[in-house]
Amino acid sequence: MRTVRLLLFVVGSAATAYGGWLLFPQLGTALPWLIGGPVLHDVLVAPLVGLVGLALGRLVRNRLRLAWIAAGLMASATLLLIAVPLLWRPRSAPPNPGLPDRDYPLGLAVGLAVLWAAIVVVLVVATTVDRRVTDRRTDRR
Amino acid sequence: MIRRPRVPAPEDFTAPSHSPLVTARLGLWLAVAFGLCFGTGLLSHYIQHPPGWFTWPTRPVNLYRVTQGVHVLSGVAAIPLLLAKLWSVYPRLFVRPPLRQPIRLSAHALERISVLVLVCAAFFELVTGLFNVAQSYPWGFFFPTAHYAVAWLVVGALLLHVAVKLPVARSALSTPLRRRRAVRDAAPGPDDPDSAQRRAFLRTSAGVAGIAVLATAGVTVPWLRRVSPLAWRSASGPQGVPINRTAAAARIAVPPDWRLEILWPGGRDSLSLADLAALPQRTAELPIACVEGWSASAHWTGVPVVELLRRAGAPTGRPVRVSSLETDGLYAASTLPAPHARDPLTLLALRINGEQLSPDHGYPCRLIAPSRPGVLQTKWVARLEVLR
C-alpha cells in the first residue's frame, strides 16, 4: 500500500503542477471562479442545508416521510442548479437557431411537479401498505 | 439555558450521512464520474489538438458522439454527487488544527491545501462546463484552455487526496453498509436506524444523479429528446439540425464566381459548384456531434473528399487542410488527419436531408466526416490543401 500511495502522491503532484502551469496565464480572470465555489458552498449552501435538515427533522417525525421529502428537496435543488445557465443567460454571442430550443421555465416547473407528484404517490402507497401490515399484525394477536 | 453561539466542532454533526462509510462510497462514485469526464475530455482535446502519436478512428461514425455525450453527462451526474460528498465531509471543515505539534500541523496544512485545490477545481469544472453547454460565458477567461488546465488540477489533487485517504477509504469500503442491531434472541434484529439512514442517503444521492442525467440526456440520446426538460439542445433547427454559428455571425458572403480550390504539393485544380454537383454523389447518415455534448444525425449528400482528390490527381492518404470562406475566427480551418481524409464517408456535402445546404449550414459546401467534433466540420469550404 505504501508504494501505491507514494506513486499516487508523485503522479498527483506532477498533474497538479502541470495544471497550474497551464492555467497560469489565465489565473487572474479564473481565480474568482475557482475560489467562488467552495466559499459559496461552505459559508452559504452547507449551513443552509443543515438548517433546513434540522427544521425538517422537527416538523416531520415519520422516518420514511422524512427520507422521501429530503430526497425530493435534493433532487429539486439539483434541477434548479442545472437550470441556472439556461434561465439566466447574459448574451455574449448572437442567438443561434435551435438554441435555446424549448421553454425552460415551463419544463423545469413540469419536471418539479412530476417529481413531487411521484413522491406523494410513493408516500401514500407506502403509508397504506404500512397501515395494512400493522392491522394484520394486530388482528393476529 | 442560553447557549452562546460558537464555531461548531466535528462532533456536533451527528447525522449518519457524515459517516466515513458514506463518504468513501460517494468518493468512489465521484471518482468514477470525474474519471470518465477526464478521460473523454482528454480524448476530445487530443482530437482537436492532436499530438504526433495520437490517432482517432473513423469508425464507428458515432464514436465522438458517444465519448462527448459521456463527457457532459458524467459531468452532470457529478454535480449532485459532489454536493452530497461535500455535505458528508462538511464536519471535517471544523477540525481544529493540531497547533502544538509542528509535524502533524504541517501534514494537516498540506492535506487542507490539497483538498482546497480539489474542491476549487472541481466546482470550477462543473460550473464552467454547465455554462459552456448553454453557450453562456459570464467570465473573462478563454473557456477551452481554462477548462482543460483546471481538469489537470482536478485529477492531480484527486490523486493526492486518494494518496492521503487510501487507508481510511479502504477500511470504510470493506465495512458493509448494512449493520444489524445487536442480536438479542438469536433471530436477526431489525436494521440499525443509523445504518438504514446511511443507505438512504447513498440511495438518494445516486437517484438524484440519475434524475439529473435524465433531465439533460435529451441533448444526445434521441429517445429522450422530448423528455429531458433541461436539454440545452435537441435535434430541431433549420433543415433538421441545430446551428452553432450562423453565416451572419461568421460574416460570410459567397462570391458569385465561387470555386473550390484543391491544392497539393506540385499541383492545383478548381471546381465550380456545378462541377461538384455533376460528380457522382454519395449520401451518408452522419452525426454533427458538438463539443458541447449535443448531437444530431442527418442525411448528407455530397462528393467524398477522397474521390475529389483522386479525380484531381492529388495524392490521397495524407492529411488535408480544409479552409473556410470565413477569414477570422478560431474554426475557420481544420485539418483532416490521414485516416479521415481517405475515408469514403468523409464528404464535401452539398445537401442536407435532401435539400440544398442553407447559408447557415455552410452553403455552397461543407465538410462532414465520421467521428469528429462539430467544430472541426468546416462550413463554407473554399479550399482543400493536401499536406505533406
Automatic annotation (TrEMBL), chain A:
<keyword id="KW-0472">Membrane</keyword>
<keyword id="KW-1133">Transmembrane helix</keyword>
<feature type="transmembrane region" description="Helical">
    <location>
        <begin position="43"/>
        <end position="60"/>
    </location>
</feature>
<keyword id="KW-0812">Transmembrane</keyword>
<protein>
    <submittedName>
        <fullName>Uncharacterized protein</fullName>
    </submittedName>
</protein>
<feature type="transmembrane region" description="Helical">
    <location>
        <begin position="108"/>
        <end position="129"/>
    </location>
</feature>
<feature type="transmembrane region" description="Helical">
    <location>
        <begin position="67"/>
        <end position="88"/>
    </location>
</feature>
